[in-house]
Amino acid sequence: MTPPRVSAEVLEKLIVGFHGREIPSELRDLLAQGLGGVVLYPRNFSAPAELRAFTDEIKAAAGHPLFLGIDQEGGTRFSLPEPFTQWVSPEDLGKLDDAEMVERQAVALARELRSVGCNLDFAPMLDLHAHPDSPVTLGRSFGSDPQKVSRLGVAFARGLAKGGVLACAKHFPGHGDVTVDPHLDSAVFRGDLKRLKSAELIPFEALISAKVPMIMTAHIFLPEIDAKFPASLSCQVLSGILRGAKFDGVILADDLAMGAIANTWTPAESAVLTFQAGSDMALLCHDWKLVKPTLERLSLARSRGEFDDWEWRTSHDRIERLRQKLKPTDQTPPALEVVGRKQHRAIAEKIRSQLAKKLGKLN
Prior knowledge:
The chain is built from 15 helices and ten strands. It is of the alpha/beta class. The chain has one domain: Alpha-Beta Barrel (TIM Barrel). The strands form two sheets. An eight-stranded parallel barrel has the order 1-2-3-4-5-7-9-10, surrounded by four helices. Helix 4 crosses helix 15, helix 5 packs antiparallel against helix 15 and helix 6 runs parallel beside helix 8.
């Protein structure tokens, strides 16, 4: 792929992923031009030292503060392999329901992420585990009680911040009781705004009050609120409900190539729609071939005036404010020796021990 010449004001809106353990030359060019960020996966490295070298190389190629994001929720589904500490899952943290221990885990987890150069964790997940068979929330949710999810979500985000990593609460406005995985197909939630306010939105409102810097949206259809677009592309949901809740941080659209929306719109089309609806940034995680057409479509839309100028400038300001927070934490990352250190493993084991005692008493 020959990388397009794209303005920094367009490039800053994308966080992209790629396969392999070498930085593609096209990515280097986009980083130098102003790309917003890179999302990393275990497919990109085999050891913490390799990941650290990788993130150092990405930062050097960019020459500007950028988001280096990763999924580290804890548990087994969206987490990093050993030698990273094998953290307790959100499900088990919810069963223990100890905000202090959740915060302690998140602080240590953040130190390990910073040691390998990552500054953004796509966590905590605030979706309620409202359906026992939900493929989205199983093992990944703090539970079904909105107040508990709020309490533990705030603790997790606070711990990440103390450890020098940005939190990204997800997936707004919550997946409700759907049983379809949006990675694969359209997920529909029939709840109306009254239902959302009584349950799903409560954890997000708590995190907004706690000043969470970023919120990721869900590719979920809510026909009672928007009959045409999923939440991630909906002006009613983003500019209406989310901004209406006084959130002034960065709104991040989940991977635009996920089946829930890619079966209807191309990622290039979704990128335009999500930014028109109120998103600040968007993910393209897995298919590098989608990056060029998406950037070209966004550049065309910008030149044609398809975006409101005031909204575009305001979005830029939000991104820039958050990028400025990256500078202090990037200067002094912890040593790689913190990854899987004995003290961190002890925190995880203490949580598991306390949970075993609690469940034993309940039984």
